[in-house]
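User: Could you check the structure of this?
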Amino acid sequence: MPILTPPQESLVSSPPPPADGYVMRFEDVAIAFEHPVLEGISFHLPRGETKILMGVAGTGKTLILKLALGLLKPDSGHINVLDQDVTAMPEQALFSVRRNIGMVFQESALFDSLTVEENVAYRLIEETGRVTEEIHARVLEALRFVELEHTVDLSPGELSGGMRRRVAIARAIITQPEVLLYDSPTGGLDPVTSNTIIELIVKQRDVYHTSSLMVTNRLQDAFTMASHYFDRQQNKMVPVNDGSAPGDLHTKFLILRDGKITFEGTATELLRCTDPYIREYLS
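Assistant: Sure, the predicted structure tokens are below.
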């Protein structure tokens, strides 16, 4: 793994809380199965910010995404998503909240029996029962964003692993959600393909300023996001040290350990952290 160097301080400074508040708040959330998994988890996701959730296997990273979606209820604490307390909502009421959340599942989770268009349009088809001209146009727009417009009539089985992940991103963004959740979006992919996926996530962050919570086990992916931005003129992801980067990438790290958040902060703060566990984790 390449040596990681802190990004320029001015480019990763902590942004002030936006005037319109937070899209997600975990307040002292705990959940146990046979043993405690999460214990007193608290963090806020400001509107327009990306938080990268990391930690060793089994620390409950994906569990946090399921809790945010209301798929599981915590044993204690509160979870507020888009000004709704999802810990207290019945399943039927959660549907309206989930319409404003895009989810990119681990391993894509596409339906093999449907075409790419039907997969991307799945949520919209649920409402109309069919692919209308308007839905078709929105599918093409979403696929154009991930540069896969030409795959609209193909089946998932005809796509490479990286293309399937890109289709999964198109499916997540077609409803223009307020929040995006990514569950290990580059897991199992080669480095070149992984970089393509990260570039799309950075593009979504910088072009549409969508609030995001991303689970990943790849330090390189995380630090690429924290040290690059999407340049619209060049139509590609470029490093912040090229002299024309925005003043803030609105990207922070959360690191889980033993059911608790052991670190929250910017890439610079993480690389400068002297905690022995963090140093070992980064090595």
